[in-house]
C-alpha cells in the first residue's frame, strides 16, 4: 500500500512529497500489535544504491507476501527533490538533510519535515538507513555503528550480509543524524554504506536485500527463503589506517577494492598526465582490508585515497 507520509507546498507551485510502501501480512487488517521495520533511503540525493535495494525488497515482499509476519515500511526517497535534481543536499535550502534531525515543528520547512519523519518512525522495532558513498570513493558493504550503541546493535548488523561492521568512536558521530535521533528514542537503527555515489552496484544491492530478509527472519517477521549470509569483520578493537594524497594528479589503483594488502605494499599510484611521471606511490602502512578506495581518479593534495582496516592483532 503506497501512501503519502509528508506533503509540503514549495515555491513555484511544486510540492515536496515523501512516500512509503507499507507491507502487511496477508491476514492482518492493520499494523496494530505487529513488529515494524522501517527501511529508508535517499536522504542524500546523489546516493542511489538504496533506490535499487528498495525496488528489490518491495518486489520480493509483494511477490511472496504469504511469508511476511510483521509490518515492513519502505521509504525510498526521504529527499525526493535531491534525487530528482542529483543533489546531495536539500535543493533550494543548501542543507544536508542528515544534519537537521530531530528537527523542529516550529522551524523552517526542512526542520519541520525532519520532525515529522521522527514521529513517523517512532514506535518501530528497527530502522535501516541505507546510504552509498559519494562519487569519489567506493565502499564495501558495511554497517556503521556508534560505540555507545554497539552493545545493542552489532548483533543485528551482523545479520545484514555485509563485509564489515565499523564501530565508530562517539566523537565521530553527529547528533544531528537520523540514526542518532532514532536510536535516542528507542528505535534501533543501523546505518548501511555500500557502493559509490550516483551509481548502482547490483551485487551489493542484492546481498543487502538478502541481509534485510535475514534480519527480518531473526526478528520473527519473515519465514520465507533466505540465502546464507556472510559473517562480517567487526572493528571493535581494530584501528583504521587512512591514506591521503601527498601530490595532485591522477590516481590509478594497482589492486582491487576489498583486497587484503600488506604493510609496505603499493596499492596505487598518483601520476602526472603532462610529464608522464609517477608523483606518488600509495603505500599501505598496515596489514589489513582495503574497505574504502578512491573511485574518482582526479585528486588534489590531501584527498582521501583509501581506508584500511588493520588486521586483528595476535
Mean of pLDDT:
95
Report the sheet-strand fraction.
Answer: 25-35%
**How many distinct beta strands?**
17
Overall structural class, as computed from helix and strand content, comes to alpha/beta
Shape: globular
End-to-end distance: 52 Å
Q: Quick one: biggest sheet?
A: 13 strands, mixed
Note the total helix count.
6
What is the succession of H and E elements? EEEHEHHEEHEHEHEEEEEEEEE
Helix fraction, binned, reads 10-25%
Return Rg in Å: 20 Å
* Sequence stretches where pLDDT stays below 50 over 5 or more residues: none
Helices and strands in order:
Layout: E1 2-9, E2 15-23, E3 36-41, H1 49-63, E4 71-75, H2 80-85, H3 109-121, E5 126-131, E6 137-146, H4 150-157, E7 164-168, H5 178-184, E8 188-195, H6 202-218, E9 233-234, E10 240-244, E11 249-253, E12 260-261, E13 266-272, E14 277-283, E15 288-294, E16 298-299, E17 304-310
Parallel strand pairs: 3-4, 3-5, 5-8, 6-7, 7-9
Antiparallel strand pairs: 1-2, 2-4, 6-8, 6-15, 10-17, 11-13, 11-16, 12-15, 13-14, 15-17
Helix pairs in contact: 1-6
Describe the protein.
With about 325 residues, the protein is an alpha/beta fold. About 20% of the residues lie in helices and about 30% in strands. It contains 6 helices and 17 strands. The longest helix is centred in the C-terminal third of the chain and has 17 residues, at about 200-220. It is globular and about 65 Å long.
In a few lines, what is going on in this structure?
The chain is 21% helix and 32% strand.
Keywords:
four-stranded antiparallel beta sheet; globular; 21% helix; 314 residues; 6 helices; single chain; alpha/beta
Amino acid at each position: 500500500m503506497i501512501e503519502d507520509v509528508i506533503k509540503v507546498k514549495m515555491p513555484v507551485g511544486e510540492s515536496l512529497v515523501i512516500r512509503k510502501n507499507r507491507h502487511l501480512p496477508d491476514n492482518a487488517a492493520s499494523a496494530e500489535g505487529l513488529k515494524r521495520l522501517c527501511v529508508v533511503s535517499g536522504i542524500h540525493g546523489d546516493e542511489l544504491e538504496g533506490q535499487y535495494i528498495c525496488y528489490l525488497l518491495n518486489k520480493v515482499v509483494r511477490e511472496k507476501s504469504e511469508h511476511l509476519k510483521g509490518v515492513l515500511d519502505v521509504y525510498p526517497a526521504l529527499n525526493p527533490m535531491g534525487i530528482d535534481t542529483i543533489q546531495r543536499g536539500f535543493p533550494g535550502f543548501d542543507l544536508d538533510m542528515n544534519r537537521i534531525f530531530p528537527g523542529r515543528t516550529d522551524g523552517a520547512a526542512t526542520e519541520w519535515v525532519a520532525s515529522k519523519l521522527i514521529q513517523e518512525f517512532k514506535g518501530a522495532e528497527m530502522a535501516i538507513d541505507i546510504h552509498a558513498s559519494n562519487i569519489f570513493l567506493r565502499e564495501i558493504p558495511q554497517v556503521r555503528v556508534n560505540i555507545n550503541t554497539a552493545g545493542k546493535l552489532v548483533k543485528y548488523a551482523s545479520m545484514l550480509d555485509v563485509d564489515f561492521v565499523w564501530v565508530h568512536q562517539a566523537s565521530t558521530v553527529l547528533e544531528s543524524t537520523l540514526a542518532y535521533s532514532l536510536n535516542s528514542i528507542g528505535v534501533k537503527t543501523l546505518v548501511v554504506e555500500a557502493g559509490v555515489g550516483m551509481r548502482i552496484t547490483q551485487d551489493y544491492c542484492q546481498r543487502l536485500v538478502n541481509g534485510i530478509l535475514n534480519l527480518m527472519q531473526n526478528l520473527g517477521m519473515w519465514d520465507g527463503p533466505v540465502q546464507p549470509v556472510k559473517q562480517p569483520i567487526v572493528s571493535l578493537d581494530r584501528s583504521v589506517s587512512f591514506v591521503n594524497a601527498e601530490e595532485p594528479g591522477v590516481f590509478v589503483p594497482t589492486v582491487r577494492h576489498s583486497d587484503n594488502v600488506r604493510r609496505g605494499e603499493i596499492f596505487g599510484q598518483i601520476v602526472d598526465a603532462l610529464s608522464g611521471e609517477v608523483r606518488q606511490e600509495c603505500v599501505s602502512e598496515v596489514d589489513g582490508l582495503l574497505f574504502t578506495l578512491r573511485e574518482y581518479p582526479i585528486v588534489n593534495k590531501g584527498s582521501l585515497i583509501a581506508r584500511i582496516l588493520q588486521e586483528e592483532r595476535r
